[in-house]
Write a structure and sequence with these properties.
- The protein has 2 domains: 2-126, Translation factors (Elongation Factor Tu (Ef-tu), domain 3); 140-269, Rossmann fold.
- The chain is built from 7 helices and 12 strands.
- Mean pLDDT is 91; it is low at 1-16.
- Strand 1 (20-31) and strand 2 (34-40) form a beta hairpin.
- It is globular.
- The chain has 270 residues and is α/β, with parallel strands linked by helices.
Length: 270
C-alpha cells in the first residue's frame, strides 16, 4: 500500500512509473551537523528543473543490502524505510542533485545512511514536489528554520529577487553550523544557537515577536519542530493576521516522535 502511494505520487510529479534508484557521487560534512550528499548519473535523466525546496521521499536500503536486492524490493517486496527530505538543489547542466541530511548520529535511519554514504552508495527517490515558495511579490519576507528546514529556507532565499528585504532566522546546534547562503543583501540574517534539539526552544518565536513589524505585505517561509510551528502559526494568523495564501509554515518533525508517528499526528490534527 505504501509503495503504491509513492508510485502514484511520482507519476503525478514527474511522469515516471516508479521510484528512481540514485547513486551517490559525493558525500561530505557541510557543517558539523549537516551532511551534503550529491547524486549523479543516468538515473537523473529527465529530472524536473525548478524544484529546489520541494519535498521528496527517500527509500533507504538496509545495511549491506545489494543493489539488485534493493531493486527487487522496490518492484514489490517489503517496503523500505521511507523518510521525507528536501531537494536542496538540482544542477541540470552538471546533472547533479544535492540533498542535505541533519547528522543525528547513527540513531536515525536516514542520518545513519548519510554518515556511511560514499561514491556508489544508493537509495530510492520518489518525487520531487513543486517548490514550497514559488512567487515573490511581497514587500518583505520572514524566513525561519531549524536544521531540518534549512534546505527549504535556503532554497527560498536563493530564489528571491536580489532587491528583496526581510528577516531570516536560523536555529542551529553550534556557531560552526552556520551556512553560507546566497541570500539578498536586504535580508537581515540571525543565527541562534540551540545545542540540544531534544529540548524545546522558544528563541525563534521570541525573536519574531520582538521584531519591528514592517509595513506592507509579508510572505513567510517557516518550518521546523512542530511545537515551535504551532505557536508561530497562531501568532501569524491571529495576532498579525497574515493571510494563509502568503504563509508557508510547516512542522517537519516533533520532539519525541519518529517521522511515521509525526505524520500520523499531523493527519489527526487535520
Amino acid at each position: 500500500m505504501a509503495l503504491t502511494k509513492i508510485k502514484d505520487a511520482v507519476r503525478q510529479a514527474v511522469g515516471r512509473s516508479g521510484p528512481r534508484v540514485l547513486r551517490v557521487n559525493e558525500a561530505f560534512h557541510l557543517t558539523p551537523h549537516m551532511i551534503r550528499v550529491i547524486f549523479a548519473g543516468p538515473e537523473l535523466e529527465g529530472f524536473p528543473e525548478g524544484r529546489d525546496g520541494g519535498n521528496c521521499k527517500l527509500l533507504l536500503p538496509d545495511a549491506n543490502e545489494t543493489l539488485s536486492a534493493f531493486k527487487l524490493r522496490l518492484s514489490g517486496g517489503p517496503a523500505p524505510v521511507k523518510r521525507t527530505y528536501t531537494v536542496r538543489s538540482y544542477d541540470a547542466e552538471k546533472g547533479e542533485l544535492a540533498i542535505d541530511f541533519v547528522d543525528h548520529g547513527d540513531t536515525g535511519p536516514a542520518s545513519r545512511w548519510a554518515r556511511a554514504a560514499k561514491p556508489g552508495s544508493f537509495l530510492g527517490f520518489a518525487g520531487p514536489s513543486t517548490s514550497k515558495v514559488t512567487s515573490f511579490d511581497a514587500d518583505w519576507y520572514l524566513v525561519a528554520a531549524d536544521p531540518s528546514a534549512i534546505p527549504v529556507a535556503a532554497a527560498a532565499l536563493e530564489a528571491m529577487p536580489r532587491d528583496a528585504k526581510g528577516v531570516a532566522i536560523f536555529e542551529v546546534p553550534s556557531i560552526e553550523d552556520k551556512q553560507d547562503i546566497d541570500m539578498p543583501s536586504g535580508i537581515e540574517a540571525h543565527w541562534l544557537i540551540h545545542p540540544d534539539p531534544s529540548v524545546a526552544s522558544s528563541a525563534q518565536e521570541e525573536l519574531i515577536r520582538g521584531l519591528d513589524w514592517n509595513q506592507g505585505r509579508v510572505q513567510t517561509c517557516i518550518a521546523g519542530e512542530s511545537g515551535v510551528i504551532k505557536s508561530l502559526r497562531a501568532f501569524l494568523a491571529l495576532e498579525k493576521e497574515v493571510p494563509r495564501a502568503d504563509t508557508y509554515i510547516s512542522g517537519y518533525w516533533k520532539i519525541g516522535l519518529v517521522e511515521d508517528e509525526h505524520q500520523q499526528m499531523k493527519r489527526a490534527e487535520g
